[in-house]
Structure formats: C-alpha cells, structure tokens
Design brief:
Elements: E1 13-14, H1 24-30, H2 40-57, E2 63-68, H3 71-82, E3 88-93, H4 96-107, E4 111-116, H5 125-135, E5 139-143, E6 145-146, E7 151-152, H6 156-164, E8 168-172, H7 184-187, E9 191-193, E10 206-211, H8 213-221, H9 233-240, H10 252-268, H11 270-290, E11 307-308, H12 318-329, E12 331-332, E13 334-335, E14 345-348, H13 356-372
Parallel strand pairs: 1-12, 3-4, 3-5, 5-8, 8-9
Antiparallel strand pairs: 2-10, 6-7, 9-10, 11-14, 13-14
Helix pairs in contact: 1-10, 2-10, 5-6, 10-11, 11-13, 12-13
Length: about 375
C-alpha cells in the first residue's frame, strides 16, 4: 500500500441546506485537548451547553441537553421515548422529514394517521385543529422548518389543539434552531429536537433536544420500556445530570464546538441573529426575483428564512448549474428531491454566510451561472 494522501480539503462556500459554514472560533475550539467523557471539566462544559441551549430554544425546560448523533438521531430519540406501541400518532405531513417521522413512528408500533398537503404547502390553524380534534391522537408531530421544501409551519394552533385532547407535541426544529425563533415554551411544544450543522453553524454529529415537564412526566409513567437503549432519555439524563454513570463515550471535540457556537450566538444576541438572517433572506429573495426566478413557497410569512427554495427556470439544468458553481466558484448548493427533484434549488444562507456581502456575491455568481447554463 502506498502512503496515505495528506488531508487537504477544498475550501468551499457552504450555501447548501447543511452542513453550513463554520466560524474559525469553532474550529479552534475543536483543536483543544480532549478530556474524558466522565471528567469534571466535561460535565461542567455540558452544563453550560444546556444553559445556552435553553436560551436558543426559548425554554425553561430542565430536561434540555444534547444527543450524540445527527438530527435524525434527535428525531429517533424524540419518537422512541414518547411514542408507544399501539398508540395513535397524528402527523402533519407536507415534506420529506414528515415522512421520516412517520416511518420512525411506525417502527415503534404506532397507529399513524396523517393529514397531508403537497410539498411546499403549510397547514392553516383550522385545518390542523380539525384534524387533531377528529383523530384525538396520543402524540402529534410536525416539522417547523421543512428542509426539503423551505416551508415554515407555525405551531401555536397545533399545540393548543393537541393539548385540548391531552396529546403531546413533537416538533422538528432541525433547520430553524439558531437562525429563526423557535420559542418552545411560548408555542407550547412538548418535545423539540434539532441538529448542530444548520442554524447553529457547527459541525454535524450532535442533536440538541428539549422536553417539557409535562412530557417528562408522561415518559416517566410509561409502562413499556423504550425500545432503544442508546436513545433512552432516562439513561441519558442519568449520565449527564444525575449520577453521571457511564452511558456512552461522548464526542468531546464536538461538545467543544457546540459550546463555542452557542457562545457566539449569545454574544451576538439571539434576537439580533434572527433579525440578521431575516434581513439576508429578504435581500436574497429580492435578488432572486430580479434574476426572473420565483420562490416555491409563495407567501413570505410561510418561508424558512435561512433555507431558500427558488424554482428552477424552464429549460435550465439544475444539476449543471450546481456543478458549475461548485467546480468554478467553490460554492455548494443543493437541488430538490422526491416530487421536487429537478424543480427547485435549495440554498442556505446561514451563520457566517448570512451577511449582505455574502448574499450579494452569491447572487452575482448564481446569476452568471444561470446565464451560461
């Protein structure tokens, strides 16, 4: 065997839906010496992460911490702990990740009922409330910011209707956390999970989760044990917060990265960060429309501000556009999939790239590439 090739990754501008650009301070934090996963320093660091996550989630939930796994690990944690075999689960389905939630709930043995809309559409308050009142599920699930479509689903009416029938609400905030208001307590969400590589501008590999006291009470009262050992929140809470008994070997460097990424958010101010992403989204849409494109999600109030989905113009090969941007300019964006394959671009404007200067530069390169396609 020849000598391994030295690692020299290319420099990219990550304008895709994730992973996103990372601040140099986060990279620097990852380079710090690791400690053991039961070390007092790590436990202290983890406690600080939990405190900062509560601010970003908009919650006072005591049970707020990080799962060792990607956003899909967060999803499986939420579903495996709060969906029991034989229980009815209502899913508001309007995109790919609603479908993934459905599949995971079915694997837990749940009776899944769905209210469906075309990808890119959202549910009105009345539609959601009528569905929940009719089906009376034990658990209701929805995606706040759908990564496959760029559509933002408001949750207050969903949570209010669910609580009227004594249902828990699980919300996927994978794309929105850190870039848009999630406001778990104000909205009434019982369980929310996310990831680190999107709005938090951190490397992938961790999944923040928060659980309301109401949901924790139901979890502690369940008679069936969680089918997942690794994602059992009772065991994880014991490891992180109670006895600190060994559960798994946490990725210390990723926790360093998340701590620094959250510190950056709090230094900027969560409200300021949300406003910055919203301003850049407005500039992005203005520029896209000037190029003659239109957004998949028609109404501005229904759009995810940090994940944009302009429609591919007629006669344009979106794959060719994406390859040209990557190969000639080092810019990564993604296309649609499922029923939206070949029909949309998925363009993230998050974290360090959510500035007017970066948006302007992107639009210039994107416009030039479209003309040449």
């Amino acid at each position: 065997m020849s000598s391994p090739t030295p690692i020299h990754p290319p420099q990219r501008f990550l304008f895709g839906p994730g992973p996103t650009q990372i601040d140099d301070r986060v990279y620097e934090a990852m380079s710090r010496p690791i400690v053991g996963h039961l070390d007092a320093y790590f436990l202290q660091l983890n406690e600080e992460i939990q405190q900062m996550l509560r601010v970003v989630f908009g919650t006072e939930n005591k049970l707020t911490f990080v799962i060792s796994g990607t956003g899909s690990g967060g999803m499986e944690t939420a579903i495996s702990n709060f969906v029991e075999a034989g229980s009815k689960v209502g899913v508001l389905a309007n995109g790919y990740f609603c479908d993934r939630m459905t599949e995971m709930a079915k694997r837990q043995g749940a009776d899944v009922v769905r209210l469906e809309k075309a990808w890119g559409e959202v549910f009105s308050d009345d539609e959601a409330a009528e569905f929940i009142a009719r089906e009376r599920p034990r658990t209701v699930m929805y995606v706040h910011a759908e990564t496959s479509t760029g559509a933002m689903q408001k949750g207050k009416a969903i949570c209010a209707a669910a609580h009227q029938v004594d249902a828990l609400v699980i919300a996927d905030v994978v794309t929105s956390l850190g870039a848009m208001p999630v406001q778990v307590d104000e909205t009434g969400i019982d369980v929310a999970y996310s990831c680190t590589q999107k709005g938090l501008s951190c490397p992938p590999g961790l999944a923040p989760i928060t659980v309301s006291p109401r949901a924790a009470e139901r979890m502690n009262a369940r008679t069936q044990p969680n089918r997942s050992w690794y994602f059992d929140l009772k065991l994880l809470n014991d490891y992180y917060n109670l006895s600190h008994r060994y559960h798994h070997t946490a990725s210390i460097s990723l926790f360093y990265a998340l701590h620094e990424a959250l510190a950056l958010i709090l230094e900027e101010g969560v409200q300021n960060r949300w406003e910055r992403h919203s301003r850049c989204h407005a500039e992005f849409v203005k520029g896209i429309e000037a190029l003659g494109l239109h957004m998949l999600v028609a109404k501005p109030e229904h759009r995810v501000v940090n994940l944009n989905t302009p429609c591919v113009p007629e006669g344009v090969d979106e794959t060719k556009v994406r390859k040209t941007l990557l190969n000639e300019h080092g810019i990564e964006i993604m296309g649609g999939f499922g029923p939206l394959a070949g029909k949309i671009f998925r363009i993230g404007v998050m974290g360090p790239l959510a500035t007017e200067a970066h948006v302007a530069k992107f639009l210039q390169r994107f416009g030039e590439t479209l003309k040449g396609s």
